[in-house]
Specification:
about 170 residues, mainly alpha, 5 helices
């Protein structure tokens, strides 16, 4: 059996359709949970990276233009992902660590390259600017991909194999 582009595209589109269908079944409680989780996610990502201006944290290097969309999408996806853990009575796919990895990568992607102590220790200031900073857009893409895959898997698992609710 050969794998064709059509088969590959179908295997990608089906879970996305199922995930979209699962969102249509969400109750107001789950949407409220998604919003309630997105706000602290945004604060946890935005405050220490100084994308949300505050008196405690600062940046040596101003944020790049793409930091704000990555920040917003990361918070939104984290809120949706967290809301998938609200009990509904339907079976779901086993939890994975993709969402956690995506959240950590988001933090590393939008953070100031010379404010990250680990990067400074490993690469120094010039290495942080010449090696780490150019890698941050790739980290941003990877983080959004991991958060998206984790969210789609959790949502598609709600539709893919529903079992009757327990009596």
């Amino acid at each position: 059996m050969t794998i064709t582009a059509r088969t590959t595209a179908r295997s990608f589109v089906t879970p996305v359709r199922q995930a979209y269908g699962a969102l249509g079944l969400w109750t107001p409680r789950r949407w409220a949970t998604a919003l309630a989780a997105a706000v602290p996610s945004a604060l946890l990502l935005g405050l220490p990276t100084d994308l949300i201006p505050n008196p405690v944290f600062g940046r040596e290097i101003p944020p790049t233009w793409w930091s704000y969309p990555v920040f917003a999408l990361s918070a939104l996806l984290a809120g949706l992902l967290i809301a998938t853990y609200v009990r509904t009575g339907r079976p779901r796919e086993r939890a994975t660590r993709l969402g956690s990895a995506g959240a950590v990568l988001s933090f590393l992607a939008v953070g100031c390259p010379v404010c990250n102590k680990l990067v400074l220790l490993a690469l120094g200031t010039s290495g942080a600017l010449t090696i780490w900073a150019p890698l941050q857009p790739a980290l941003a893409v990877a983080s959004l991909a991991l958060l998206t895959v984790a969210t789609v898997r959790r949502l598609a698992g709600e539709i893919a194999c529903p079992a009757p609710a327990a009596a």
